[in-house]
Design brief:
Layout lengths: L4 H18 L6 E3 L4 H11 L3 E6 L2 E7 H11 L6 H4 L1 E2 L10 H11 L3 E6 L1 E7 H10 L12 E3 L2 E3 L9 H4 L1 E2 L4 E2 L4 H11 L3 E5 L5 E6 H9 L3
């Protein structure tokens, strides 16, 4: 099927964000004797989401932010509240904006998760959503213009791709937390629901902030 210019433009825009967020030239290696807080600090200092663990120069394993989140969910204790670690007043968007805007917002703000609001929280869109859509926009996946691509349970045809809105791709009614919740509870929630961030809601339901696995990683680093 011939490439649609508008689709290719959108695919290139999304690809820029994917490459920026996912590709890393730096591989951080640590010996098995490295403590968990030290490992967390190395991730933060080098702006990476994983550390390769080596034993005598041989690969022994890998530690990720998800592993650190799981560690904190068990060992974090009830000291820190979500409010102490969350990002207040996070960058947001609306469901009616073009999907391309989400990629641009992520790229310009160096973030991978955007709460979607309209007075109240409506959803969240993440880099993972962008990656899935970028694959769907690959023309090699189409046989003709009438073939539909499934995105978040909805059918889209190639010529419809440029009109996709953030609301078509975002996760609606995401798992949330409160600023007064213990950070350990938020870490547990992330692990249970397999998400990398939780919007933080005030008592009246307004968006107050966002807490991520990176924030939990910072808490682990402070345990040293």
């Amino acid at each position: 099927m011939p490439e649609l210019p508008e689709v290719e433009t959108l695919r290139q825009d999304l690809a820029k964000e994917v490459v920026h967020q996912v590709m890393s030239k730096l591989v951080v290696k640590e010996p098995e004797s490295t403590t968990v807080p030290q490992c967390a600090r190395r991730m933060l200092d080098n702006a990476v989401s994983s550390v390769v663990v080596v034993h005598g120069g041989t690969l022994a394993g890998i530690v990720t932010k998800t592993d650190l989140c799981g560690f904190y969910a068990v060992s974090g204790g009830e000291k820190e509240r979500v409010r102490e670690r969350m990002t207040p007043r996070p960058v947001t968007s609306t469901a009616s904006r073009p999907l391309r805007d989400a990629a641009s917002i992520m790229l310009s703000n160096r973030i991978s998760k955007i709460p979607i609001v309209n007075d109240r929280l409506e959803g969240i869109i993440t880099l993972s959503d962008i990656i899935v859509l970028n694959r769907a926009l690959n023309p090699d996946a189409w046989t003709d213009e009438s073939e539909a691509v499934m995105i978040k349970g909805r059918e889209f045809r190639p010529f419809e791709m440029p009109s996709i809105k953030i609301g078509d791709v975002m996760t609606r009614d995401p798992v949330t937390t409160s600023g007064e919740a213990y950070l350990r509870e938020a870490a547990r929630s992330m692990m249970t629901h397999h998400v990398g961030a939780l919007p933080v809601l005030a008592e009246g339901g307004a968006l107050e902030g966002i807490v991520t696995k990176t924030d939990v990683t910072k808490a682990v680093a402070s345990m040293a």
